[in-house]
Fold:
Amino acid sequence: MLDVEGRTLETTADGFLVDPANWDEQVAAVLAAGIPIELTEAHWEIIRFIRAYYLRFHHLPNNRMFVKAVQKEFGAEKGNSRYLHRLFPESPVKYACLIGGLPKPPGCI
Structure:
């Protein structure tokens, strides 16, 4: 469970929102604080991108697809593993999805 400004939101055992419709930027900030990641505009850019990707394609990419999709959208400077790992240590696609209120991506432990 996650408490955000008087709202109690159901989460999975891994901390992902059960209902992505409950997501907003306040929820994202609470989810990020639990990792802990302090969100910057660079984080928001990737979070908004992965949310748009999910809404458009109705699935989540694996890590390789994620990096390639970010590269296609934002260029090689941002579409590489080093940049994404600086923003989201350990697993960029996992933590971008978690903070973005999306389901757990395929292949994430």
User: Anything to note?
Assistant: The chain has five helices and two strands. The two ends are 20 Å apart (CA to CA). Strands lie at 2-4, 7-9.
